[in-house]
Specification:
heterodimer, A: mainly alpha, Serine Threonine Protein Phosphatase 5, Tetratricopeptide repeat, 2 domains, 70% helix, B: mainly alpha, 14 helices
Chain lengths: 176, 353
């Protein structure tokens, strides 16, 4: 009897492990450039001094372009592809997207920047953007909740809701 | 209803102190919902020792020192300091690592589950369910015959005092030589209650827990094993007192989606805590109980604590720890490895009968 129970327990354990292992399989194609899953897996990439010098130069040029509001989108796309692990690129891109009125995309880019460097939400940090991110998060979330009540949300918009709540959890503080 | 006496009152006092200070320390400066969290504090300790590069989680928390020092001093005073060892040390060390792995994927230790619930964070319910299930599985294997060694075998007296004395010495040295240990200036490390309050709270809780034998996973295992509700009463008082203090201080916020220090992946919340519950049974107590046991001279618990500190390092070095976005792929793999390890411990420690 005990032997049978042990056998059943072992089968249950193997089934549990297989089920958990299946969670690693990709479930669906991401609908947005930044999804909650890409945020979870985002990594900071370290640079050697030469790469860092090039990066700083390119970032400064991109900042000038974004401030001048010409052809910024193309330059930022290139930077994102080249330096996906740098928070500065995502924050700059977010700022640009916000100025051109693409609030949902801006929010997801801020989320990626925050994921790579939480100092954006630290009041004492020189790169603090907490108030700006909080206000954008609340606005985007409010719009999406209204839309959900009216006509439902597309898969992309559902992803933005998740990202907005990610930022709200980060804004609420706590351990990381 | 009979009014609990002696040990019963001590257990309830332990629950009350953990609930009160767990909520109040967050109000006085500790990170939100993390007034007391053994896994967060252990990760902070690993960071303070330079064992991982995340300086946002680098600070020797006085509470952590207080828990072990309080238990150590009270055990000495009550003649309950009994150095003893007898379990399998390497096995215990790895269990210590996985206690922190599971906790970091959930984003909190078993005590923090209750504190998060007390602050209105309903995502912690998945963790509570997982923890109870993990303890149940562990107890099930214990009952079917496991030989994990004899932890009552006496050991050389100094062995049992090494880890408590190291904690106390580290704390004194960190005060005497500023800069000796790393202290993060941003993030959770920068959020801390005043040192005197943190240390006093830690000493009081450590002392009470040593007298009462309070343990979160022990509450479940006593219930499952012997239908004994005494420790569970302490756990319920912890929850009620934390809720009351949070409501009084105006920091209670009921919800699931935007809670501090949490993520909404319920499957991995539950699974990671299942690992912690299971590993706690095999290690002889939850992470908090390990500190108290080490304080009263149990060398096996000291080994588990060393494993926990190493775990606190690797969860940051290998990106195992979850973020508000959810668990990382490395975190999921680590939890699965932890479960496989626990089952291996069970498989290879069966008593021949």
């Amino acid at each position: 009897m005990t032997k049978n129970a042990d056998r059943i327990a072992e089968i249950a354990i193997v089934a549990l492990l297989v089920f958990l292992g299946a969670q690693f399989l990709p479930s669906r194609t991401p609908t947005t450039e930044i999804s909650i899953n890409t945020l979870a897996g985002a990594r900071v990439k370290s640079m050697d001094p030469v790469e860092s010098a090039y990066f700083k130069k390119e970032l400064t040029q991109a900042r000038l372009v974004v401030d001048g509001d010409s052809d910024a989108a193309e330059i930022l796309e290139k930077l994102k592809k080249k330096y996906p692990g740098r928070h500065e690129v995502w924050a700059l891109s977010a700022r640009f997207l916000e100025t051109v009125g693409k609030n949902q995309e801006a929010l997801s880019h801020y989320a990626r920047a925050v994921r790579l460097n939480s100092d954006y939400l630290e009041k004492d940090s020189p790169i603090f953007l907490g108030h700006r991110i909080k206000s954008l998060t609340n606005n985007v979330l409010e719009d999406l909740i209204l839309k959900k009540r009216k006509s439902g949300l597309s898969p992309e918009e559902v992803e933005y809701v998740k990202i907005a709540y990610f930022l709200r959890r980060r804004l609420a503080g706590g351990c990381e | 209803m009979k009014w609990p006496k002696g040990d019963g009152l001590l257990i309830m006092a332990s629950g009350l102190a953990l609930g009160f200070f767990g909520a109040a320390l967050a109000y006085w400066g500790n990170p939100a919902n993390s007034g007391i969290c053994i896994s967060c504090f252990t990760e902070n300790l690993a960071g303070a020792l330079g064992l991982h590069p995340n300086t946002r989680m680098a600070y020797l928390r006085p509470e952590l020192v207080g828990f072990i020092a309080g238990a150590f001093l009270v055990a000495l005073a009550g003649k309950e300091f009994r150095p003893r060892a007898g379990r399998l040390p390497v096995q215990g060390f790895i269990l210590g690592v996985f206690l922190i792995v599971g906790s970091s994927v959930f984003m909190g230790c078993p005590i923090k589950i209750i504190l998060r619930l007390g602050a209105g964070d309903m995502t912690a319910l998945a963790g509570l369910g997982g923890l109870a299930a993990g303890v149940f599985i562990g107890i099930r294997f214990l009952r079917s015959g496991l030989d994990l060694g004899n932890e009552t075998a006496p050991s050389a007296p100094f062995q049992g005092a090494i880890v408590p004395l190291i904690f106390i010495a580290l704390f004194i040295l960190s005060l005497a030589i500023p800069g000796l240990l790393i202290r993060g200036e941003t993030g959770p490390a920068a959020h801390a209650a005043p040192v005197a309050i943190s240390l006093s709270a830690g000493l009081l809780i450590g002392a009470l827990a040593q007298r009462s034998r309070f343990c979160v996973t022990g509450s479940f295992s006593n219930l499952f094993l012997a239908r004994d509700m005494s420790l569970m009463r302490g756990l319920l008082i912890l929850l009620v007192s934390a809720t009351a203090v949070n409501i009084y201080l105006g920091i209670f916020r009921m919800g699931m989606l935007d809670q501090p220090g949490s993520h909404p992946d319920y499957l991995w919340n539950g699974t990671s805590m299942l690992l912690v519950g299971f590993a706690s049974v095999l290690a002889g107590g939850c992470p908090f109980r390990q500190l108290v046991l080490a304080g009263e001279g149990l060398v096996d618990a000291s080994v588990v604590i060393v494993g926990m500190v190493v775990g606190g390092s690797i969860v940051h070095l290998w990106q195992i720890t979850s973020t508000a976005a959810g668990p990382t792929p490395a975190g999921k793999v680590a939890v699965l490895l932890g479960l496989i390890y626990c089952f291996a411990v069970v498989r290879f420690n069966r008593r021949e009968s």
